[in-house]
Amino acid sequence: MNNFSKNAGYKEPLKPYNLCRTAANAIDSVATLSQRIQALGHTGGSTFGRWYKSRRVNVDIQSAFLGTPSRKDLLEAIGKMGLRRHPQAAKSLTPDEKEKAIRQSEVLENLQTDAAEPRSCLIRDHKSLGSAKDADPTRTSKAISEPRKWLAKETPWI
Questions:
Q1: Does the first or last residue of the chain, that is N or C, have fewer Cβ atoms within 10 Å of its Cβ?
Q2: What's the pTM value of the predicted model, to 2 decimals?
Q3: Helix 33-40 vs helix 16-28: angle between axes, to the nearest 10 degrees?
């Protein structure tokens, strides 16, 4: 079982208790008290509450607070994200991989092109950056703000 837990990416080794507790919490919502006691081999109902009951609240608190309908399907999908992870998927990128991904990024390429645009607009309109400093600031500001607006719209994660 130790190899299984390592291969699955768990920090702690899995024990039979972990599997029994998972099964107990799964059948808790669909079985009666007597069925659960029988399935788990307990002598009474207090054992489940003391040792097996999940500490997680099975209520969509955010939806309740906001007064919106609960998205049970979404909550279940988020709760099972770890189970759907590809075992060979990298947990983090190396610095070389990050740099390569950034270089290949089309968005970054567009940003670099657009970053040069205000400078070239100023040079085109004023013949040099030195003479542009005495120009109308609203015109200069507009030349700079347009690419910034595009950047904010295209890259909301920045």
A1: C
A2: 0.36
A3: 160
